[in-house]
Amino acid sequence: MKKVLLLTAALAISASGLWAQAPLRFDVQLDKPAGKISPHMWGVFFEDINLGADGGIYAELVKNRSFEFDNPWMGWKKLENTAEGSLLIVNDVKRKGNARSLKVTKESASKMGLQNEGFRGMGVRQGADYEFSLLYKQHTAGLSLRVELLDENDARIGQATLALDNKPDWQSASVKFTAASTTAKAKLNVWIDGAGSAELDMLSLFPTETWKNRPKGLRKDMVQILADMKPGFIRFPGGCIVEGRDLANRFQWKKTVGPIEERELIINRWNTEFKNRLTPDYFQTFGLGFYEYFLLAEDIGAKAVPILNCGMACQFNTGEVVPLEELETYIQDALDLIEFANGATNTTWGKLRADMGHPEPFQLSMLGVGNENWGPQYIERLAAFKKVLNEKHPEIAIIASSGTDPEGERFDFLDQRLRGMQIDIIDEHYYRPPSWFLSGAARYDDYDRNGAKIFAGEYASHTTRPNGPGRSTWEAALSEAAFLTGLERNADVVTMASYAPLFGHVDGWQWSPDLIWVDNLNVYGTPSYQVQKLYSLNKGTDIIPIKRNQQNVVGQDSLYASSVYDEVNKELLIKFVNYNSKAIDATFQIDTKRKIATEGSKLTLANADLDVANSLEEPLKIKPQQAGIKLKGKSLTQTFAPYSFTVIKLPVK
């Protein structure tokens, strides 16, 4: 019995050794940088999913403003008892990109009007100014419009009147008014007063306060939360949006530039993708088009990373392919996009960019060909793109898809073939459970240093199925923080990384979890947002080896670490993940001939409950906590909280 007790005690001491022993030692080799880090390492991936564009970052409040949805009355309803034939949808195919309009015929002063429900309502703020606008042409003079905003209780909270000129040609008109109260569920009434006949189109309502106060621009708070990350790049427009359910509904960038009223609407492929999350009113108006994407990237200091269709529709849907002999149109789209982004103003597409307000080039340097495509049919089409792009634009780096999964037969085939083609950047995606991210922290330690660079183009740790009611929990975010130490340690191979999807609307999502959640008035970052933001705001210029027992810190005792040096700010940055239920003590011994400041700082995300998440009610439940730290010589000892991610910042003199 005595031997059993002694053995039990010995096992208990051994099991708790991590907590009972002296501080664990980590060696930081500041004078032995292991490689350079891309200045655009950490970025964002945008796709119009979960009401990301229409109903989201594009600040238009009216749904189906030009009556171009499959059901032209979707989002609208008639007010009062309108006479038969007094409100007609007219289809005029001579009008480029926007054939439909609403013909109004009113013979008396009877009451007639329309109501628009917005995107799950309209977010309206007290004291804010709004602009109603439309295109119209009058056939018979005498009509005027009276617009009003109603709250969720049908109380009027804003109104204005707009007289229509008697001109036979299409023209625009607008009027501004101020909202008297705040609501997330407003609706818009458009009353038609007087008597006469006219055609109405592009009935629109925008807040006047948009990002940079651009008329009919982007939702300010949603852009700001991106700008706060200081992302190095924006990948757009997707995602499966690029492919489309079939080639007829693929994303075609040329249809998203030029005058707004001439951009051709298409159905959003997420409209009916998930039977449990049907969204039949989800279309793409392209008010947020390629020009606006480039402008957004420039605004927030990010590189634009557009992805184009390679001649293949989504292989999970129809899997349509364009014949190789007809691929020229798709390749020409890529060449013309480069001209649109970088070309001189005397070129066709460079002139369009200038006419839209940006004569200076956008400095495009990377271009994706295909999204999550796979198989020999993809390699054939990619090779055709590569041949032309390399000949005509060797300055443009090509990003190629490695398929939908980070391992398996498809991945292995593509990885081998893409490397054989000497593709510049391979786009790897991983939607996996937390355990995969923890075990994958060493994924790139043995990748070829002289081969293709890696773009972690879509990553997210999933604790539930993506089309279920998933949350971005602290467990998911902390596993991502651990995995990202591996990306940072191998930043000489991994040149870019972005979470996906970016936005989710609480009343209109199809896929979860998402990096940032919104409703019609509010926006908040998830724990995953807080993790990537800490990486993005604390990126370095040089990889600095950090070792424990001469080994990379990749899960030993559930600890993960990376370190970098920031040449610009003269700082040593250490990122440390404690994926344990108890606190640990650690000592960092900094091997350098340089002088380290005696005081530094640390930012910590931590919570003992892995299931917690941020929310509209508690948007900062998980947020960075800052504290000062002190060094003894070139040694730093710190206690790391249970289930924590910490960024240590040490000035280097």
UniProtKB/TrEMBL annotation:
It catalyses: Hydrolysis of terminal non-reducing alpha-L-arabinofuranoside residues in alpha-L-arabinosides. It holds the Pfam family Alpha-L-AF_C. It comes from the Bacteria. Gene3D superfamilies: Galactose-binding domain-like, Glycosidases, Golgi alpha-mannosidase II. Keywords: Glycoprotein, Hydrolase, Signal. Its EC number is 3.2.1.55. Residues 1-20 form the signal peptide. InterPro entries: Alpha-L-AF_C, ASD1_cat, CenC_carb-bd, GH, Glyco_hydro_b, Glycosyl_Hydrolase_51. It is an enzyme of class 3 (hydrolase). Residues 457-644 form the Alpha-L-arabinofuranosidase C-terminal domain. Coiled coil: none annotated. PANTHER family: ALPHA-L-ARABINOFURANOSIDASE 1. Belongs to the glycosyl hydrolase 51 family. This is non-reducing end alpha-L-arabinofuranosidase. It comes from Sphingobacterium bambusae.
